[in-house]
Design goal:
295 residues; 18 strands; Fumarylacetoacetate hydrolase, domain 2; eleven-stranded mixed β-sheet; globular; five-stranded mixed β-sheet; 31% strand; 8 helices; alpha+beta
Amino acid sequence: MKLLTFRHNGNTYIGAICEGGGKVLKIAEVGLNFNSMQVLIQNIMDSELELIRTATKTSEIFNTLPISDIEFLAPIRYPARDIICLGLNYADHIEEAARFNSKKFGINMPKAVYFSKRVHESVAPFGKIPRHSDICDSLDYEAELALVISKNARNVAAKDAADYIFGYTIINDITARNVQTAHKQWYFGKSLDGFCPMGPCIATVDEIGVEPALKIQSYVNGELRQNSNTANMIYKIPQIIEELSSAMTLQAGTIIALGTPAGVGMGFNPPKFLKSGDVITCKIEAIGEISNTVE
């Protein structure tokens, strides 16, 4: 099932994409009135999820909207806390990052690299990315699979990880490379306003599984840049959830971005950084695509 946040006639709704993909069902049609995806994730019961899932398969008995009539918003517009990110989680991306700046990225870590990304408001899946030209001269993109935690997770064994995953979405981890490399931590260069396009939906875990093998791609102005598979991640999702939850509570609605494969702008010689007017499209199999234009 694919859940989404959308706008129609000036109002914002939580909905689900109906079987066949051409229509959207407001969850209010089945008697549910969560006012945001964050609230839904934190409070919805399995039986209520099943109610929505069933309704998307029998949508002819409900009032639905053509998907062409809605405006997609980021599924989680205002994350309740910083996004947890994995750096250097694909071997080919480690190599290209080291070529770009061996001092900052040329590391051989025996453990996963974690950092966080502050997001004031997630950019809509077809929205604009601010250029921030006053401080950024090397704007870059990173297509990433991101998981959403379904319930508070503490001391979760890897074998039980699936019970704590609500679903998956796409994130474009926009980065100001010059700001990122100017500091010992990546936080600032990853967290400028408008640096987190997200969407177009959250595909629930029952559709994707706990160790997804999904094609992941990015395009800039139609040119294929990244082309890999999430099966190539070095650190797998059950391992990540077990490690993080061993010492910290992952609260319901927590977003974990799982890293990016090779093909980002800094990986080319010379680098192919983004400029105003560029259109970046990130696609992940079974979830969909987001496509954003640099202002």
